Amino acid sequence: FLYLLAQISFAQQLSIEEFATGFSSPLNIQHAGDERLFVVEQGGLIKILNNLSTNPTPYLDISNQISSNGERGLLGLAFHPNYQTNGKFYIYYTDINGDSQLSEFTVDSNNPDAADASSEVNLLSIAQPFSNHNGGCIAFGPDGMLYVATGDGGSAGDPNDNAQNLNSLLGKILRLDVDIAAPYIPSDNPYVNDGNTLDEIWAFGVRNPWKFSFDTSTEEIWIADVGQNEIEEINKTNNTAGLNYGWRCYEGNQVYDSSGNCPENNQLTFPFAEYTHNNSGLSKCSITGGFVYRGSEFPNLLGNYVFADFCSDELGMVDNTGNITYFGLFSGNNFSSFG
To answer: What is the pTM (predicted TM-score) of this model?
Structure first.
């Protein structure tokens, strides 16, 4: 099901309104600069929702080249900032071997509602040691670069200490320039040609940043990082290069495992906001990050970051001081994405 935020009053009451149904495990909602919505299904389809009606033929179908059990599948979609002229878009998925794949596709030159399925270009492949924590959120930043969130490789507790390892692409935020030749490395990435670090890395120390987004007004990045056993965290920064968000040394502001490559605390960037799994009498477990609201319809949301918890079925917001407000229960929804 897809829902609209329907109303918010000065008492901070919020309701949701269903506006589209008939999807199978929708994990992402994007737009390409026009009135259409593109709904990403975990099983490998991208469907177009046009004037609240779903096109009968998918925009893209890669169901025969992915693995989609558990946390795997077609996980991310981003349209090039110049999509209206170059027709390029990008997806992140787990292939049939369970490894992560970032690819470029192009729209069909004869049909704006269909992708050219034969146009795939492999930008980046990442071997996955376990089936979970694949990340998958991709987005173009205000600088025109493509940002890619990768999980720590899975299992539990980051057993290989990938997130703190600068020779691994796992547990990272990567930054690519898709408008230059492979390997698409921007010259101002923080570790370019240092001889010790993978050039794609922009930030590190994340566990499973299922969703991140950029504030369209301040250009700050908001990263909702799914926690281990106790704490869900929300990171907000000015997107400075080379930040270390702390995992697995820390889960939120709490020490988790200091046996690996843990730096001094003054070298870490701690969460802007966090919440525990045992919070306000409800069982929380997995944050679904959203966006900072910059619209005009709901003044009380202006400048606040909207998110959800997948397990407790709550919607919430974070204000500019880091305080969290919850809007109560919307049972049975398991919110997986915002758009």
So the answer is: 0.96
